[in-house]
TrEMBL record:
One of its GO terms (cellular component) is exocyst. This is Exocyst complex component 2. Keywords: Exocytosis, Protein transport, Transport. Residues 12-23 have a biased composition (Polar residues). Residues 1-29 are annotated as: Disordered. InterPro entries: EXOC2/Sec5 (IPR029175), EXOC2/Sec5_N_dom (IPR039481), Ig-like_fold (IPR013783), Ig_E-set (IPR014756), IPT_dom (IPR002909). Component of the exocyst complex. The keyword Transport applies. The keyword Protein transport applies. Component of the exocyst complex involved in the docking of exocytic vesicles with fusion sites on the plasma membrane. GO terms for biological process: exocytosis; Golgi to plasma membrane transport; protein transport.
Length: 824
């Protein structure tokens, strides 16, 4: 026994708590051994009864009590816990009275048996088992084979495991066994005895074997001799009677044959009389057997109809449970009838599998519904991966929807209007307007274009973006949920059969890479279709002002869509594609805002009504400078919403070197357009002056108005007309006021909004305004000079050569006009 590794055994209770030797004792307690091999010894009254012990659990075992009298201590020894303790004591009495009806709970496994003896005073049986003249100590212990007198002398015997370690040979220590080994006997019971002790032991053995008790065979025969002879006489008479009966049978053999013939004829006649009845009975038995078989296997016989009924009800879980149960019970049955019925079940389930596959590839499909159907097909052990099949068809269906949206938008652009009719049928468009490919018809023959109502009464670009965003927030999210479940292992498919039947690529090797590939394909398609339709809209229209408003609406719709998408759970490649699309749309919107501002400013010349605001500091200006300032300020504020990010996937546009270069350039182009407007107003004035020169000089109307037809209409309404020179002066003052006040405030707004390269923009504006100011100023001086010098033109032509005065040139702020010098 090694070093104990656990708690020591403890005996808490015994049953019964008193008895005689040979009683089966039930011992209860704690830590009575982890296993049967862990139990080493059970000592009762110092005697090891481990050979008779039976282990049930760490809390229960049984043993047979040895010889002994009085209070016997119980000690259990285990390999894991060592020597234990006991809280109870077993009381034993040597005397025992056994009657013929006494129940003996244990029969000792010993060759020695105690025969019943009679009392010494009477010659017959008295029924008492108490022997008269019994010598104490003459009996042998059934567990050890030692005399009772010897048990009190020996110390605690050596355990079997320790004995095998000391003397590893075969043999037995029991005196009555055939393979008795004396060396093992001495090592077990007399390991610490000296020579004198062994001499005493030999003496005790001789005395025990020499003493003859009433239980010896000689005494048994002697006391029951009369009964033995009576039994022999009865057996001899029985043998003689059997011999006589045998001889009488041999002599009467002919009578037996006759009797046998009569019995056979009787049997034949009886069969003839009851032949029909017996046949009906056999048929009835056959019917009963068939009915019993039907009742016994009614689950299988009713299963095909039950499966069809449950399929019609939509109870697919019950269908699978019944099928898997039948498969486990009858798939390998040897009965022909059961095999035929099971084949019918397999055919029904095969049709059910085909139906599930059609439902799985019928798009659109909800993620939870798809997961249920994938689970059903996986349990049916189909020869393809249902999860991957659903993902590929789902992806193709989404791309088809995007193509349909693009075709509708393109058709609207070609027609030049949007869908205004509310009588819209998506299925008609698939047949008439669109050419759906073969795979779309395989997916769902009755499919129609989803969200086609988003194209009602809106520009094609806006309808396209709205439809795509709704597709993203409804069905693409379902596609992503299904793909996430697929790569996480929730839709695992382990069937390794061939996939050649479906002509599809298996994703078994790397499902994450395969899922990322088809997801990138879908997201790229979404991005490209939205980008293409926006670029096509800008390239096919001349009304860029309204198109910019539509683009801003598209960006707002796209941002709301991105905010509702779980992009944080997607890979970085997916987020980059959405971010790049947002960048392109925002950049195009910024360019459109400034282009719209430029076009709006260029149309200000037709809005000029020459309503003059006079101030002491700035002189007189019209309404155009204030309108210009409002247009540019609104454009700057609108650009703020596009330049800076508004969703998690967006980044500032100024992170791009291209936008840092282009933004001040676009801003400057829009602002410089005011100079062009002022120059066109000056051109109109000059054009009017030229018309006046073509009229009759003697006419009083040689200085008629230079303004266009729009202003003429206002003149007709009663508005006062200013002179041409005053008009040029107002135009020049507008330019100067914008340079000093409007542009100063606009540049401060530009800087406060966080836009880049404000110094470069300021330099561009200063250069443009200097050139514009000089150009308009020169026109004003030229106009005034011509009107002043016109009366003297004929006189000067006669005095001086005309070649000196036919040209006009500018030098050091002095203008030479037709030979006259006018100092500004």
């Amino acid at each position: 026994m090694g070093k104990p590794s656990g708690p020591a055994p403890q005996v808490n209770g015994i049953s019964p708590n008193q008895g005689t030797p040979g009683t089966k004792l039930t011992i209860r307690g704690e830590n009575l051994g982890n296993t049967a091999s862990d139990l080493l010894h059970v000592f009762i009254g110092g005697i090891d009864v481990g050979r008779s012990a039976q282990w049930f659990s760490p809390k229960k075992l049984t043993a047979i009590t040895p010889l002994g009298e009085g209070e016997l201590e119980i000690v259990v020894v285990t390999d894991s816990g060592g020597i234990g303790t006991a809280a109870v004591i077993y009381r034993q009495n040597m005397l025992r009275v056994v009657s013929p009806q006494t129940v003996v709970t244990y029969w000792p496994e010993d060759d020695r048996r105690v025969a019943p003896t009679s009392g010494s005073t009477s010659g017959g049986s008295s029924g008492s088992t108490v022997a008269v003249g019994c010598v104490p100590g003459a009996e042998l212990d059934h567990s050890t084979g030692l005399p009772m007198s010897e048990l009190s002398r020996i110390s605690m015997p050596l355990s079997d495991s320790a004995l095998r370690e000391i003397y590893p040979r075969s043999g037995s220590v029991h005196l009555a066994d055939k393979d008795f080994n004396p060396v093992m006997f001495l090592l077990k019971f007399y390991k610490n005895s000296n020579f004198n002790d062994l001499l005493v032991t030999v003496k005790n053995f001789r005395q025990s074997m020499g003493q003859e008790g009433p239980s010896e065979p000689v005494n048994v025969i002697r006391t029951n001799l009369v009964l033995i002879f009576r039994c022999l006489d009865g057996m001899d008479s029985l043998r003689r009677r059997l011999d006589n009966e045998k001889k009488s049978i041999e002599t009467n053999n002919s009578n037996d044959l006759r009797l046998e013939s009569i019995l056979y004829d009787t049997r034949t006649l009886g069969h003839r009389l009851f032949e029909d009845i017996l046949k009906r009975r056999d048929r009835g038995d056959s019917i009963k057997n068939a009915i019993s078989v039907l009742q016994r296997y009614q689950f299988l016989f009713n299963l095909p109809h039950a499966i069809r009924t449950n399929i019609s009800k939509g109870d697919y879980n019950l269908v699978l449970n019944d099928y898997l149960r039948a498969k486990s019970l009858f798939s390998n049955s040897d009965a022909e009838v059961l095999r035929r019925v099971y084949i019918d079940v397999e055919n029904v389930v095969a049709k059910f599998s085909v139906m599930l596959r059609k439902q799985l590839i019928s798009m659109p499909i909800d993620c939870d519904d798809a997961r249920h159907k994938i689970g059903y097909l996986t349990q049916l052990e189909v020869d393809y991966d249902p999860g991957w099949l659903c993902l590929t068809y789902f992806k193709d269906w989404l791309i088809d929807q995007l193509r349909n949206y693009q075709r509708i938008s393109h058709q609207d652009m070609v027609d030049g209007n949007s869908m205004k009719s509310k009588q819209f049928d998506g299925s008609n468009i698939i047949g008439n307007l669109l050419s759906v490919d073969s795979k779309s018809s395989v997916m769902n023959p009755d499919s129609f274009i989803l969200f086609a109502e988003d194209f009602y009464g809106v520009p094609p670009m806006v309808g396209m973006v709205k439809a795509v965003c709704r597709l993203l927030t409804t069905h693409v999210i379902q596609f992503w949920r299904l793909g996430t479940a697929y790569i996480s292992g929730q839709l695992n498919y382990n069937n390794q059969k061939s996939y050649d039947k479906l002509d599809q690529t298996s994703s078994t090797n790397d499902p994450k890479a395969a899922w990322l590939q088809i997801n990138l394909e879908l997201v790229h398609s979404v991005s490209n279709h939205m980008r293409d339709i926006v670029l096509e809209a800008f390239s096919t229209t001349s009304n860029e002002t309204s198109l910019t408003d539509h683009l801003l609406e598209c960006i707002k719709e796209y941002r709301q869509c991105c905010s509702s998408l779980p992009l944080s759970e997607m890979s970085s490649e997916i987020c980059d594609i959405f971010a790049k699309l947002a960048y392109d749309l925002r950049k195009l919107a910024v360019r459109g805002i400034f282009l719209r501002a430029q076009l709006t400013i260029e149309t200000l010349q037709i809005k000029e009504r020459w309503d003059v605001d006079l101030t002491d500091t700035d002189g007189g200006i019209t309404k155009l400078p204030l309108l210009y300032e409002d247009i540019i300020a609104d454009s700057f504020i609108l650009c703020e919403d596009q330049v800076f990010p508004r969703t998690s996937i967006e980044k500032p546009l100024f992170d791009s070197d291209e936008l840092q270069e282009r933004f001040p350039e676009w801003s400057g182009i829009g602002m410089i357009s005011f100079i062009a407007v002022s120059q066109r107003l000056a051109d109109q004035i000059e054009h009017t002056v030229q018309r006046a020169h073509g009229q009759d000089e003697s006419s009083n109307d040689n200085q008629q108005s230079w303004i266009d037809s729009g202003v003429n209409n206002l003149r007709n309404s009663g508005q006062n007309i200013i002179s041409q020179a005053r008009g040029l002066l107002l135009v020049l003052n507008n330019v100067e006021w914008v340079a000093c006040h409007a542009n100063y405030r606009l540049l401060n707004l530009y800087k406060s909004l966080g836009y880049v390269a404000v110094d470069r923009l300021k330099a561009t504006l200063d250069e443009a305004w200097d050139e514009g100011r000089k150009d308009i100023c020169s026109r004003y001086v030229k106009l005034r000079s011509e009107w002043l010098c016109l009366p003297l033109q004929s006189y000067l032509l006669n005095l001086l050569p005309s070649e000196r005065y036919i040209n006009t040139k500018k030098k050091d702020d002095i203008y030479l006009i037709n030979g006259m010098f006018l100092l500004i």
